[in-house]
Fold this sequence. Notes:
By secondary structure, the chain is mostly helical. Helices cover about 70% and strands about 5% of the residues. α1 (about 10-30) runs antiparallel to α8, α4 (about 90-105) packs antiparallel against α5 (about 110-130) and α4 runs antiparallel to α8 (about 200-210).
Amino acid sequence: MKKQMSDSLLLAIFLTLAGGFQDAYSYNCRGQVFANAQTGNIVLFGQNLATGQWARAVHYLLPVLSFVVGVYLTEWIHHHHKYSTRIHWRQTILLGEIVLLAIVGFLPNTMDVFANILLSFACAMQVNTFRKFRGLPCATTMCIGNMRSAASLLCEYHVTHDPKLRDKSLHYYFVIGIFAIGAAFGAVLSQSLGNRAIWLAAALQLIGFFLMFSPHPSHTAQEDSDTP
């Protein structure tokens, strides 16, 4: 067993704030596309396809395809660099995500399609790399899975009265609340700062990057397990 900061709630807070921020930013600044919520993009793609809005359909399809490629790339990096000793593979991916968000901040609105491709790619990198916190499967860029887990565990707690299940449920509700806070900041700051607001999300991720150089103070996890 080796201590990992990548499993800590503190890292989850910074990554989830950034995740909520990105979704609000892409919607408010980049043509009402959801960088993280690909289900919404698929629905809008189908809707525009059915009504013959071909260009608009492609507008929503490209982020979806970019998300798929992002997941593929992170798996490739994981399998080829999981035993790297110079820098952890998760940090490599997070650093790449930070660079992508920094680039997005420079792109004008005439390049919103490309910006959304980069945002969705970065989201895929994060959601596929950071899957567990405190040993619990958890997403930092979307809420639906966390909501299902929170409600399911709460029901189990009411049936069994096991306090551990209650604590796990509260963990998920806490993460959902953090996501909402990140989205709120993203919405407000996107309106005041414009396209460059995304740099604040990158700054949150940068804090997470440096946090991962420190060992987790209170939790141990199996290093480089098949399910990170």
